[in-house]
Amino acid sequence: MTDSTDAPPFRPGEAGLAGLRAVMEGGPLHLAEGWREAVEASAAALEARMATGEALYGVNTGFGKLASTRIPAEGLAQLQLNLLRSHAAGTGPLLPRPVVRLILALKALSLARGASGVRPAVVEALLGLLAADMLPAIPARGSVGASGDLAPLAHLSLVLVGEGEAFLGGRVVTGAEAMAAAGLRPLVLGPKEGLALLNGTQVSTALALAALFAAEDLLATALVAGAMSVDAARGSDTPFDPRIHALRGQPGQIRVAGALRTLLAGSQIRESHREGDPRVQDPYSLRCQPQVAGACLDLLGHAAQVLEREANAVTDNPLVIGQEVLSGGNFHAEPVAFAADTMALALAELGAISERRIALLTDPALSGLPAFLVRDGGLNSGFMIAQVTAAALTAENRALAAPRSVDSIPTSANQEDHVSMATGAALRLHDMADNLAAILSIELLAAAQGLEFHRPLQSAPALEAAHGLVRNVAAAWDADRAMAPDIAAVKALVEHGRFAALVGWG
């Protein structure tokens, strides 16, 4: 975990994605001055409305289908605690620690906007867990992305009251131990505070944001791998001419073409066949990279806008606005579901076109290189099965890319009769990103091998730097050996953004 007193404070409602990514990766979250007054005013307004004796959903009534059941004053605190306990019904593997950091941050930022009727102590408890890196243990599955991410947020919220489980170092401890280790006292929940903690889209949004950050790095890595494949196959850089892309006007396409031109600039391999090459056009997987990766870039850009708005939103229910308490449906995560579904398309397509470039490089009829990128073919199989692995992962991502947002299922005795499935939509992106990282790792290995068949000619400086990254962890393929360790070693570099850092977007 990193910390810095120089990190700028976050103003609730105005958090940027770069700052949220820094928090996810271990950075601090400090709220700007002024948030406490807005939160106190919201809590006071709720208390005043309660004093009138009117029925307020989730404050002095039951929840969901039980909303018509009034709860007496002496049962209100127990009502909120029972809500947390009963809703902690998640299952499956625990969410990754960086995602949990982001969930805590998003929930604190949302409540700190002063429209949820909670006391400042609730926000402070969330910030305290985050600052201590004391992260609740949250099962990944159990939310349908409507009425909030109820089950996962219940598991988080139990820690705040000294129940549930959390990570302490490398082990899981009780919520009471975690709060004590963080120097915090367990909360005694006030009216609506349990509901405010459970309602909201913070889990689906955090999962989608973490996937977005990974996808952005993977797209940049795909450009490095694709440019290396162009040079390894002695392809042309003419398809990346800016005049072509200006005539279409798609912004992502223009940016990707510019990045590819920069990556290929100064390649001796390209200059060696600029004249007299009998080939007229390259296959689409080389030639149409700006069109495909550019469309993916535009999709990710749109998803980023949606998710940044959602990260700053107030999504619990009911909301305290001025002196009114209004019931609505901001907890319905349809925007997140749509963003996740479009991101899935981008991840699937980046992998699909990468796999086609791997297949091209291993096919001597298309690449002009030795079959399966190895000398003494027959005795050696080279990259034959590495391409099969890439094909298997590509097929898996195609299946995972099917939209989740259209698959609503009624819950809560049909009170919640249309749901978003946003949490599952975002969760599956992490498997897709992992698959794509492996596909790109195989392409980087194959392209690095292909470049070496053109020695002593050098590729472009940026691509030689990428080649060096590969060779630092995986030797050239002179004779058959186990391929899995090489894929894993390059994949670790991909996931740490080492290849993505070579891309200059201009």
What does it look like?
This protein is mainly alpha-helical. The protein contains 20 helices and six strands. The chain has a two-stranded antiparallel sheet with strand order 1-2. It has a two-stranded antiparallel ribbon with strand order 3-4. β5 and β6 form a beta hairpin. The longest helix has 31 residues, at 202-232. The model has no long low-confidence stretch (mean pLDDT 94).
Layout: helices, strands, pairs:
Blueprint: H1 17-24, H2 35-51, H3 76-87, E1 91-94, H4 97-111, H5 120-131, E2 139-141, H6 150-160, E3 165-168, E4 171-174, H7 175-181, H8 193-198, H9 202-232, H10 242-248, H11 251-264, H12 268-272, H13 284-287, H14 289-311, E5 319-321, E6 324-326, H15 334-362, H16 364-367, H17 384-400, H18 422-452, H19 461-473, H20 484-495
Antiparallel strand pairs: 1-2, 3-4, 5-6
Number of strands: 6
Mean pLDDT: 94
Structural class call reads mainly alpha
Order of helices and strands: HHHEHHEHEEHHHHHHHHEEHHHHHH
Write a brief structural summary.
This protein is mostly helical and 506 residues long.
Features:
elongated, two-stranded antiparallel ribbon, 506 residues, mainly alpha, 4% strand, two-stranded antiparallel sheet
